[in-house]
Amino acid sequence: MAFAALLIIALARGNLPSLRQRWGDYAVVGLINSALPFALFCFAEQYVSASMAAILNATSPFFSAIVAAIWLRDRLTPSKLAGMFLGIGGVALLVGWQSQPPAGHTLVAVLACLSAALCYAVASVYVRVRMAKTPSFAIALYSQLAAAIVLAPAVPLAPPQGAVTPLVVANVVALALASTALAYLLYFRLIATIGPTKALTVTFLIPLFGVLWGFLFLDESIGINTLGGGTLIVAGTWLTLRSPRLTPTRRGRAAHPGPTRQTSSAAGPKICSRSSR
């Protein structure tokens, strides 16, 4: 449905992106950024609350920092490492501090949520490396096509467990149009503009609204483990995404990255160019 909505927009604009050149990249992004995490979260939320799933989703920046360190040789700064340790502590508090020990299926569901967060992290770095110059609309459009192709065979295996009411249909349409088509269109543009790790700052809002909607609409309780674990994970996310502060020397170098060269030309005035990164 998300693909259909984006396709209608493309046809209405008379500007359908080409699929031929990067179909393999679209397939990879559709798999690891949509099909796999969607399936993992759908499985997990049968056994954990929406609040817990939303908070665990906020661990994506931790995984993104690790993937970027391995793939892009980004440095794991002390701030990033401290954020990761806070995140681990938050997950442990969120899952472990309960009146009863978590059941086996709960732990499997938690691992599924963390695996989905890892998928998002890998996808964000992949898009930055492989598809930096690809229009965000094309990525959103064809990645949803790939995800639909991957998930279509599973539809007969998971029929609706209840009546398909107009409210259910409205919710599905809202998820497809607002939470998928529009959200991915904006998200891929963020990756191209500010990079994969910073683009994942959107996860700051997920725990807040996940806990709020779970409390308001699903009658979920907000316990100490939810508040404490969520706070640690959000704080760890902030540390992981925080830009390092420049020392006076580095600040001066950033402001004056290099000498100014002057190139003269007989056909025009002198052009000043600054060699900067």
* Strand proportion: under 5%
Strand/helix succession: HHHHHHHHHHHHEE
- Strand order within the widest beta sheet: 1-2
Structural class: mainly alpha
| Main pleated-sheet profile | 2 strands, antiparallel
Shape descriptor reads globular
What kind of oligomer do you see? single chain
Count helical runs. Answer: 12
Rounded mean pLDDT is: 81
Number of beta strands: 2
**Cα distance spanning the termini:** 42 Å
Q: Give the total of domains.
A: 1
- Helical content class: 55-70%
Poorly predicted runs are 246-277
For the CA atoms, what is the radius of gyration?
22 Å
Any overview of this molecule?
The chain has 277 residues and is mainly α. The chain has one domain. Helices cover 68% and strands 5% of the residues. The chain contains twelve helices and two strands. The protein has helices spanning 2-13, 23-44, 50-57, 60-71, 78-96, 104-130, 136-151, 166-194, 196-199, 205-217, 224-241, 248-255, and strands at residues 260-265, 268-274. It has a two-stranded antiparallel ribbon. Helix 2 (23-44) runs antiparallel to helix 6 (104-130). The chain is globular and about 50 Å long.
